[in-house]
């Protein structure tokens, strides 16, 4: 066995020994994988906020809200005198489930090679999820990575010329080094805790299973332990790591690394990042690192450079290039918007200079963009039942426009809802949650009477849920509107018996389906309501809206006629009469167009000039923007009467009529 040990030493240890500044190292030395992380001195255990967490701390995957793809190519320790060419390639993908609420899966591939002489590869599969999500959301994360390791040796002079026990060259290939390879399973475990909003700590245990990767003899990988802390703002990061790594002689190397990162956002043209780090540790290990980044939209380009200043110094350092792609929109709107504006205010040019004027113009545009984005995200969260998230978005928008009273009122109402129901998950399938969902949205929209009626539905369907009564009382206290009618006649509760309970729940589900534009489901639910309550005018209206959206105009007309017969309120009857006239006209026009023997009448002279038609169209658009759908429809009809071939007006009229029938007129 002696010649095997000699060959192993010559063929492997010397090769690996040329690659690292601390002398001969064990297999799977942690040389790092990311360009951005390299610029931070690999002090990433408590940062772990992108796809590279698959390698550095899988717990960090749980903080992601949208899919990410990251890849880096590295030229390690360039300029070594022995001509070796160590390099590393890495690619990782992270995919959050339901915006990260159900955890995040990650996968990666890591490949290290010294020319064609020696190769190491790792296949990684990770999963992470937040802990105690109900009581302490966003604070604790636990993650793990399962790895398949494989290492192999290529052709070397030693492999082609075996050595005997006496040290004599045999002139024949060495049986041990003829393309040997070794594979085994391994695992990493990570933990991340958000101590405060900007402070995080992380723990990573690498090579948890201490796998044997030796070719002919036992060669176990020792466990590495990393402990880190980080302070993060939207534009800066301070981070530090303590790494306890297993050394080849069985001892433990101690490495300390600190890094800093600063992002320099421009208002409209992406962000630039700079970073630097210093590392020191056992066996004269010292290293400087720095990095640069450019981020725009969903793409980020990174460069990292590391230079050893202790141990092995006959090298021009390691160079890494990386690319990160993010897909979709984050669940949380970019909280950096408001802070970006404040930060840029500090860097404005002198007042009165041309640069100052240009910066203010950019700042105003950026601010409007930020507010619009926060409001869009708040609406998305609210209509998805995430009221706590929606409240956070409205708060961010209000911080940029603090004197907006309507925004202030919306935030106050949304906060009231979020304090009782931070999130509703099953409102599309659970009738009680559907009624709560609709009641909450009506309250935020400023319709407390409708909100209380729907909360009464919810209370009848789930009489043991005290939160519903608490929200109803909060709505009453905020608006001064009091629950009324038989729904609260007994002990403040809605009826809990008979068909009325079923009708209430089904109506709530129908409203949700209509909001989600699931019109076939609206038809089905409306039929169920009308089977139990044939005199329900609102159900007929919703049925008519769904049929119209599905282009079933005769069925829509029939349903709206039934609603008109049952409606008792004069204003609603007048509105329904307008819908019926418009729909009847639409059906008759369709019949005339479908009849081949009927010759279309010649267009009459409109008597309106093109400028007058254009002004009418603009007026119709203004009415639509103000929510005055009936006036908008009348304006577009006047254009069509004057100019029947005006396709823009016809399309606008169709859209307005669709919203009118769906009950969207705000007049």
Keywords:
single chain; elongated; Serine Threonine Protein Phosphatase 5, Tetratricopeptide repeat; 19 helices; alpha+beta; 667 residues; Porin
User: Architecture of the domain at 2-326 in CATH?
Assistant: Beta Barrel
CATH topology annotation of the domain at 2-326: Porin
Hey, roughly how much beta strand do the residues contain?
15-25%
Q: So how many helices?
A: 19
The beta-strand count equals 14
Q: How are the strands ordered across the major sheet?
A: 1-2-3-4-5-6-7-8-9-10-11-12-13-14
- Which runs of at least 5 residues are low in confidence (pLDDT < 50)? 1-25, 332-337, 485-498, 598-605
User: What is the CATH superfamily label of the domain at 2-326?
Assistant: Outer membrane protein transport protein (OMPP1/FadL/TodX)
Round the mean pLDDT to the nearest integer and report it.
Answer: 78
State the helical fraction: 40-55%
- Biggest sheet record: 14 strands, antiparallel, barrel
How large, in whole angstroms, is the Cα Rg?
Answer: 34 Å
**Overall 3D form:** elongated
Distance between the termini: 94 Å
CATH class of the domain at 2-326: Mainly Beta
Structure classification: alpha+beta
Short description:
The chain has 19 helices and 14 strands.
List the helices and strands and how they pair.
Elements: H1 2-17, H2 35-39, H3 53-56, E1 68-75, E2 86-96, E3 104-114, E4 118-131, E5 140-153, H4 157-160, E6 181-196, E7 199-206, E8 224-233, E9 236-246, E10 252-265, E11 271-281, E12 285-296, E13 299-308, E14 318-326, H5 336-346, H6 354-383, H7 387-400, H8 405-420, H9 431-444, H10 448-461, H11 466-479, H12 498-515, H13 519-532, H14 537-549, H15 553-566, H16 570-594, H17 610-625, H18 629-642, H19 647-661
Helix pairs in contact: 5-6, 6-7, 7-8, 8-11, 9-10, 9-12, 10-11, 10-12, 12-13, 13-14, 14-15, 15-16, 17-18, 18-19
């Amino acid at each position: 066995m002696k010649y095997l040990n000699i060959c192993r030493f010559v063929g492997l240890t010397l090769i690996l020994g040329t690659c690292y500044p601390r002398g001969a190292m064990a297999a799977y030395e942690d040389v790092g994988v990311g360009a951005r992380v390299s610029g931070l001195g690999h002090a990433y255990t408590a940062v772990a906020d992108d796809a590279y967490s698959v390698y550095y701390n899988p717990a960090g995957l749980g903080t992601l809200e949208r899919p990410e793809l990251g890849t880096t190519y590295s030229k390690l320790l360039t300029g070594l005198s022995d001509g070796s060419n160590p390099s590393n390639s890495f690619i990782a993908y992270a995919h959050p489930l339901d915006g990260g609420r159900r955890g995040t899966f990650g996968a990666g591939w890591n490949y290290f090679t010294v020319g064609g002489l020696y190769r190491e590869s790792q296949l990684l599969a990770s999963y992470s999820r937040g802990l105690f999500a109900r009581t302490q959301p966003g604070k604790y994360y636990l993650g793990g990575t399962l790895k398949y390791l494989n290492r192999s040796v290529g052709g070397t002079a030693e492999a082609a010329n075996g050595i005997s026990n006496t040290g004599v060259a045999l002139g024949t290939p060495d049986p041990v080094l003829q393309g040997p390879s070794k594979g085994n399973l391994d695992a990493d475990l990570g933990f991340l805790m958000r101590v405060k909003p900007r402070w995080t700590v992380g723990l990573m245990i690498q090579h948890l299973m201490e796998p044997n990767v030796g070719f002919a003899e036992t060669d176990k990988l020792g466990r590495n332990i990393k402990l880190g802390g980080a302070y993060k703002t939207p534009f800066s990061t301070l981070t530090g790591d303590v790494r306890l790594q297993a050394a080849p002689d069985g001892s433990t190397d101690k490495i300390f690394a600190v890094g800093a990162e600063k992002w320099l956002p421009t208002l409209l043209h992406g962000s630039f990042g700079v970073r630097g780090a210093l590392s020191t540790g056992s066996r004269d290990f010292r290293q400087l690192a720095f990095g640069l980044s450019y981020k725009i939209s969903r793409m980020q380009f990174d460069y990292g450079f590391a230079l050893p200043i202790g141990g092995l110094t006959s090298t021009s350092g390691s160079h890494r290039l990386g690319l990160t792609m993010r897909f979709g929109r984050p669940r949380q709107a970019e909280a950096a918007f408001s802070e970006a504006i404040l930060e840029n205010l500090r860097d404005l040019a002198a007042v009165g200079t041309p640069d100052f004027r240009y910066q203010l113009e950019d700042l105003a545009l950026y601010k409007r963009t930020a507010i619009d984005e926060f409001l869009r995200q708040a609406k998305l969260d609210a209509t998805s039942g995430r009221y706590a998230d929606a409240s956070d978005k409205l708060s961010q928008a209000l911080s940029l426009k603090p004197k907006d009273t309507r925004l202030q009122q919306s935030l106050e109402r949304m906060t009231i809802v979020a304090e009782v129901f931070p999130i509703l998950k099953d409102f599309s399938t659970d009738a009680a949650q559907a009624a709560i969902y609709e009641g909450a949205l009506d309250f935020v929209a400023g319709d407390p009477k409708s909100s209380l009626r729907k909360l009464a539905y919810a209370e009848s369907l789930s009489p043991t849920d005290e939160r519903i009564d608490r929200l109803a009382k909060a709505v009453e206290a905020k608006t001064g509107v009091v629950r009324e009618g038989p729904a609260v006649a007994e002990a403040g509760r809605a009826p809990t018996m008979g068909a009325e309970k079923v009708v209430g729940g089904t109506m709530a589900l129908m409203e949700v389906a209509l909001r989600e534009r699931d019109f076939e489901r609206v038809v089905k639910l409306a039929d169920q309501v009308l089977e139990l309550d044939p005199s329900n005018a609102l159900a007929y209206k919703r049925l008519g809206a769904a049929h119209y959206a599905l282009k079933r105009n005769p069925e829509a007309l029939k349903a709206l006629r039934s609603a008109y017969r049952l409606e008792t309120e004069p204003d609603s009857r007048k509105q329904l009469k307008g819908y019926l006239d418009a729909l009847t006209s639409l059906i008759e026009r369709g019949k005339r167009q479908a009849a081949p023997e009927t010759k279309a009448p010649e267009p009459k002279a409109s008597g309106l000039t093109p400028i007058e038609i254009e002004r009418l169209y603009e007026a119709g658009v203004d009415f639509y923007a103000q929510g005055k759908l009936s006036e908008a429809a009348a304006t577009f009809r006047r254009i069509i009467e004057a100019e029947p071939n005006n396709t823009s007006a016809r399309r606008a009229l169709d859209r307005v009529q669709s919203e009118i029938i769906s009950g969207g007129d705000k007049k």
